[in-house]
Structures are given as structure tokens and as C-alpha cells.
Amino acid sequence: MKKKVFATLALLCMASPVWAEDEAPAVQDDMVITATRSEENIKNIPAKVEFIDRQELDLTSGETLTEQLKKSSSVNVIEYPGSLAGIGIRGFRPEYSGITKHSLVLIDGRPAGATNLATILKDNIDHIEVLKGPASSLYGAEAMGGVVNVITKKSAGTLAGDVSLGYGSFNTNTEKVNLGGSVTERVDFDLSASRYDQQDDLEDGHGDTRENTTWETRSADLRVGSDIGETWRADLSGNLYQGRDIETPGDISNGVVDSGKKDLDNWGLDLTLKGDAGENNQLEISGYMTREESETYDYYYGGVQVPAYHTYDSDINWYGTQLKDIYSWGSHKIITGIDYQYIEKTSRSYNLDGSRTAPYSPDEGRTNIAGYLETIWKFFDERMTVTAGGRYDYFDVETLSTPYKTDFDPNSESFTWFSPRAGVNYSFDSGIRLHSTLGQAFVPPSAAQLAGYSERTVDGVTMITKGSSDLDPENSTTWDIGTGFEKKELGLNFDVTYFYTDVNDRITSVTEGYTTTYQNSLDAEIQGMEIEFSYDLGQHLDMGRSIKFYTNTTTIFTAKEDLAGGGDQDIHNVADYNFNYGLMYADDMFDGNLHFRTQGKMRDTDWNTAGYPEVEYPEFTVADIVIGMNFLEHNRIALTVDNIFDEYYYEKKGFPKPGRAFFVNYTYSF
């Protein structure tokens, strides 16, 4: 009965979760940069972009980027308690580790430098732009399913800030502070810091305590910006995340023997300089470096409990520069640029006595140099926008000399790739618009697949695993077509987009005798539909408040991949559908968000059963609510209830999500 009620609500409460400031949330006023690497009106660009603003972030429960995306942008996720999280866009499997993925995450246009999205918190975010569909023509590798661009706060004017304290279920306490504004006519800054401490273990929807699920995180962000001369500006930004004693319970079917903990660190630093190089020309140059660190500890060894045993740690470093030139005449633009990036990944493994041993995989490096061109053409009094462009990438991937690992020879291989994309958008005076894109994207082979070599001797037999220098990148061609409608005075907004993706040259391992290598031999096919629909009753009736019904959905019609032994299967960890829907309210004193998330069935491998059979996850619906009240000018109190109906559910088998939880937060603004 409950599911029928939710299904009815889903049909009645269709809306896109896009919430702008104050009482006039006109989506058409949202300017985005992700789709073209230049600022454009979201309603004029051909690519499918979703906009999540700061008020929606505040009214959506969840501290991490992954929580926000799955509740606002209907993406697929994999989340483990406290420590690991990843996303998949448009039917691609969610990924939470490694430097080769199918969805790209950026911070202010540069690579986020985070393979684990649990390390990106929402505290310093101004808004999020989610580009759905291929974007390798602008961003290169990994932008196959889409791009998430996190835009951070950039305050100016009078200094303002807030201090928050919170407490909730599982003995959780939080502290946050934000401050930003101008200190002189030319210098401004933003500063934020937070701490999240969950001291008791989680309870699932059955009321069972999940042992070894406590954790603590700390984060800080600082930006200092300055105007230089009349048209130039420099911004220096830094971010820091620390996760301490993040407990990892392991699969529930194994009891506690797989439990342990992790320490996670992520920090980044970037400097951007931009300004006018002429009347119609704007230059931007930026440099960045980021680092992600992970230390893993086990509580058990050989089934016997031991003091926390340091088993493994890894470091990943990103270094890069970006040079961009935007030339415009009239309403037309040409955007050109050069990107450079080097990534290095190192790892270390340890014995029980603390001594070093060889890690499972060799250290690796990846160098990428690319040039891109994007053009924007506007016709018929700017009713029609046509975009076209492409990017040429050069890659050099290498396996590096790795301490204690002597079963391979360091090697390197290089390749090049070209990625085109084009699109058209036409807007009618009636509020209707039509949009379509066609583009290609790619994911590069890993260093091990392209240049690896290792030997392993078992019972006197030497088995060899080696890379193949002839590998091509996995690549895809995607086209989408959609229509939208917006009437600001009615508070009505709608968009529906159909997409089709053909994936080629997927990489698989092949074994002949005692030698295993890799080849491009498998394909995949994905097609589906995305719907955004919103209706603001308060805006329609000019009530001086917002009463918005919303939904954001992705339905997958087909997500099939070829199997090495013949035949095909559903792409694992991709739900048949993801529906987000609910009601947002805001006036001068109160605001709130009643949110529902329904996830359809999906398939996965059961690694705990002999033969590793395919299993099907059940569908589920989870409801959350955030209610806030502003009082005495500077004060605010907010109540959050996660999983209102105490649903027992999981997004990864063996790792049930928390049951009902309450959180109260007090904020003083100044």
C-alpha cells in the first residue's frame, strides 16, 4: 500500500529540484559554465545540464557530494558506511576508486583530485552543475557519462558569516563556521571550516546495530581573491579534508572479521588568473595540485582479533595547468584552450609485524596534454544556439618502479585520441525549447592494461600477466534529444530528454596457456530518459512565498554489456530507475523540503556465494525531511529526519543503510 502511495505522489509531484534565491526561482536566470567552458544561460545550451543551488543544498539532507547528487540529480551511487562513495551517470556503473572512471568530477573547472567522493563535503559549495552526456570534447578522459562541476563560494561586499552547532542520532555532533566578503576595495575572501563526529554505531531499518561504523571528519576551505588593474583578477584557493578513525564494517554476511578502519586525507591548492586581453578577448590561466591519501587498518587477521593492523596505504597526486582563451563577437564565441595534467599513484602494503611487503599493483603515472576548440553560434535573434567543437588528447601512461615489487618491469606506452561534439538548441517565444547533442567520449586504458608486466609462480608453473600496447581507449558515441517548457509567471518548468549511448572497445582480459593479456573486444548499449518537472504554486498565485512540487528522474530502458564468454548481461549497480520527488516550501520565516527517493531494481554479483551468481536488488523508497525556522533576525534552527519510515534498504548488498535518524542544528548569522 505504501509503495502505491509513493507512486501516486511521484506522478503528482513532478518537478526539477532547482531552487533559486528568494521567491523568484527562475531557472532561466541560472548561468552555467560546464557545458561550454564559458558562461552561458542554461536554457540556451544544447547539452543537458542540471543546476543545484545553495538553498537546495541546505534543504537536502546529507553532508557529502554523493548524498546531494543522488537526491537531486537521480544518478546511481555506491556508498559504504563513512568511507567510500562513487557515482555513475546515464547508465554507467558507479565507481569509487582508481584514476580511470566514466564520470568526471571537477571543482571550479579543474579536476577534483578525489577518487573517493565521500571526501567532498557540501560546506563550501555555492552550487553544483551536472552535465549529463559525453563531454570529452572539452574535458578529455573520463567524461563519458557526464561531468559534475562543483562551484565554490566567491563572496564580495560586506563581511558576513555564520556559526552552526548540531546534534543528532548515533550521538552525532557537528560544528561549522563560514565567513566571507571584502576586506578592501580590491581584496575579498571566503573561509569555512567544519567538524562531523559520529560517536555511536549506526542502526539499520530493522533496528539492528551495525558494529564498527563510527567516524569523524574535519574540513576547511579558504579562498583569497584580488582585482588587478581594471579587468584582471587572481584567486588563490585551498581545501582540506581529514577523515579520522572511519570504521569500515565489511560485508554483513561475514560478521565482524572483515571490519577495520581508515584514515583519509584530501587537499588541494589552485591559483587562477583571468582578465581581458582585448575588447572581445578573455584569457584565463590556472594551475593546481591536489593529493588524496588513504591508510587502511584491519581489526582481524586470520579470523583472530588483533590490535589495529596497518595493512595498506596509498597516495595519489594530481598536478596540472589550464590555459583558456574566449574570443567573442556579437553573441558568438570561440573558446580554445590547452590542458596539461600529470597523475601519480603510489601504494604500500605491510605485514602483521609492520614490515613492508610488495603491494598488489605497481605504482603508476599518467601524463596528458590536450588542446580543444569549442564554438558557439547564435542565430534568429539568439533563439537558436549551435555548438560544435573537439579535443585532441595525448596520453603517456607508465608503470613505475615500486619498492618490494620485483615481479614486473617498469614500462610506458602512449596514444592519442580525438573527441568531437555538436549540439543545437532552439527556443520559441511560447516558452518551448528543443535541444539535441551528438558527441563522442573515451576512457583511457590503465597503466597495467597498456604497459604492465608481472610474473607469478604457483606449484612450479610461471603465470604471466602483461599489458597490450595495441589497446585503444574504451569509447562511446551518444546522442540525445529533448524538449523543455518554461513559464516563469506560472512557476512551471519541464524538460524531458531521451539518450542513447553505444559503447565500443571495452577492455577485457584474455588468457592463452599461462599468459594473460588484454584486448578491445566487448561493446555495450545504454538508452534511457531523464525528466525534470516543477510547479511553484506560490509563484503562480503570487502568494509571496514558494510552494514547489518537484521531481527529477532517470529511467534506464536498456543497459547491456557484452560478456567475454558470449552473450550479455545488465550493467551491474545501475538501477532500472531513480526517482526524486517531493515538496519544497519557503517564506520569510519558515522553509522546508519533504523529499522522496525511489530506486528501482538493479543487478550485481554476489561475491559471498559459490559460483558468484548474479543477484537482483529490491526496489526501495526512502523519505527525508528538512524543516527550518528563522527567528530574531540572526537565528535559525533546523530539524532533519532521515529515512522517516525507518526503511530497511541497501545500495550495495551486505551494507545496509541507516534507519530513521534525527538531527537538530542551530545557526547564528552575522
- Using only CA atoms, what is the Rg? 25 Å
Domain tally: 1
What is the number of E strands? 39
In terms of structural class, how would the helical and strand content be classed? mainly beta
Identify the overall geometry. globular
What's the CATH superfamily, by name?
A: TonB-dependent receptor, beta-barrel domain
User: How many helices does DSSP assign?
Assistant: 6
CATH class: Mainly Beta
Estimated helix fraction: under 10%
What characterizes the major β-sheet?
22 strands, antiparallel, barrel
Stated plainly, the CATH topology is called: Maltoporin, Chain A
Known CATH architecture: Beta Barrel
Low-confidence stretches: 1-28
Percentage beta strand: over 45%
- State the end-to-end CA separation: 47 Å
Overall pLDDT level: 92
Structure overview:
This protein is mainly β and 670 residues long. It has a single domain (2-669), classed as Beta Barrel (Maltoporin, Chain A), CATH 2.40.170. It contains six helices and 39 strands. The strands form six sheets. The protein has a 22-stranded antiparallel β-barrel. A hairpin with a 2-residue loop joins strand 29 (492-512) and strand 30 (515-536).
